[in-house]
Design a protein that fits this description.
There is one protein chain. The chain is α+β, with helices and mostly antiparallel strands. 60% of the residues lie in helices and 13% in strands.
Length: 191
Amino acid sequence: MTREEKLKMLLHPEQYTDKQIDQMLNGTEANTPDVNEEWRKFVEYKAVANSKFYTLRSKLIKIAAMFIGVLMLSGIAYAAVHLIRGQETGVGSQETTAVANSTLSTVNSQLAEQDSVLHQPIVFEDAELGTILSEVATFYKCETVYKNEKVKHVRLYFTWDKTARIDDIVETFNKFERFHITRENQKLIVE
């Protein structure tokens, strides 16, 4: 039976008898793959691919760990040399502390700027001024001083954007006109 006849038979089986279709199917040879052999080949292929991946990954992790280790050691060495030179040249511990505090505050302010993206505005609904200012003062590392204790209990609706500067927040609070807040260094004075 030719290829064309087989194709016709597959496309229009209604034109042929069952005997003719059986004859066509019996005469057709199909290669049946050995499932076990194919599975063994697949497992070997995956094992080789995984071993290459994990070998490369482990090498990259080792390189990254060495790089981080070198950076840490060089940072520690730099700090040690800096401290020793500072002591040799007569730099006092107060100056060293001031420089360290200045550096620390710079790092903290940079971290605060990066974290500001993560902070969502906080909404206070019918909250007392004392509660609101307590959270705001804690966030900005300020102390709150009340000249009139009754002002603490004034209830407000307030949306606090943590990315705003403390001076902007004080200005917003002063728009309420029931109290007045002034800022002196790290103190919030409420009148």
